[in-house]
Amino acid sequence: MSITLDGTSHRAFPQLPGDWDAFFAPFIGGVADQMIEEIKAGVPEFARMEPAYVTNIRTAVEGALQHFVQLITDPDASLDKLTEVFRYIGWGEARVGRSLDDLQIAMRIGARVALRRITLESERYDLPRSSLGDLAEAILLFLDELASAASAGYHTASEQVAGEQSRRRRRLLDMLLSDQTPSPSAIADAARDAGWRPPRSVAAVALRERRTEEYLQPALPPDVLMDLNRHEPCLIVPDPDGPGRRQALETALRDWSAAIGPTVELTELGNSLRWAREVLALAHRGVVPDDGLIRCVDHLPSLVVFKDEDLVWTVARARLAPLLDIRARHRDRLARTLLACLQNGFNATEVAARLHVHPQTVRYRLHQLEELFGDQLYDPEARMAFEMSLRVWLTLHAEGREA
């Protein structure tokens, strides 16, 4: 094995005795022509290439044949220049979006043509069978080295392409979420560079990683823009109300706390993300349930109520003053019962089911609430203020804020 200056390694080629330059010289050009024709027949994609590309293939084939002769006759011959050529060929295949499969098939076809021609010429020159076996081994080793070089170049380019695409998609995401609304032409240009088709409607998703033993990056549809490296990770989801979209998101985001904002136009994505982040913060506090993908539109009352907590907290202390004077344990039970009554039209059976108590218990607590608040308990204009006050008071009380 030999080690090159760039750190790559190659297996040593067998040195074959004899004048192989004289053996190969008469037919090496014809072998190159035959290889090109059979490659074009066996790999239709190559046959459709531009003439300049075919010329480059011919140059690579002829250079490979000449290099092969040097390798088996000169112990000091190096494979480095040729492997660099094939690394570049593999790199080019990836950059234009082609699979490496066609190139590998072409290389195998070329090796097959070379073996067939050498076998034919060996009979004419009465070549020993052992030499023919050594030649076949050298050709296979040579093919393996070139294939490895092409593969290395291909994977390098694939990583570069993926990295460039990822950076372009992040730049597009930053543009769409910018405080300054981008122009339609700027969006179109950035979307084209990122390989992203601007949709008619979008929604932003705010994310918070759950505490799990193993972090898993979500497997999201390719049209979803994603940036998980932000201080506050987020997504941009095209056509969020499309068939199966919500289920796909919930499955992909099962290891995350996630809230999806309202469906908006592209230029309004900042608002969608703002609401998504606010409802995610409420879920973190326990104000809204954190059970799967949280939809902002399902929790608009909570978003509105908690928009100005200080104001509602001040109103709550005044509105709930009679309740706040009783001992804490009994006060909490009555507060939760009153909130459930307001949300269920004072239906004792439904309230009991929600609170997991007997209906008679609800009626007893309701009688106590009537004594505390009197007729205002059933005043339609007061009910909204009661409900807002109770929701905020119960949340802040649970967080330890003094009443």
From TrEMBL:
Domain of life per record = Bacteria
The record's annotation in Pfam families points to: GGDEF_2, HTH_30, PucR-like_N
Every CdaR GGDEF-like domain range = 183-281
Listed transmembrane segments: none
Q: Hey, what's the signal peptide range on this chain?
A: none
Q: PucR C-terminal helix-turn-helix domain: which residues?
A: 334-392
Q: Which residues form the PucR-like N-terminal domain?
A: 14-177
For this chain, the family text in UniProt reads:
Belongs to the CdaR family.
Protein name, as recorded = PucR-like helix-turn-helix protein
Organism in which the protein naturally occurs: Actinocorallia herbida
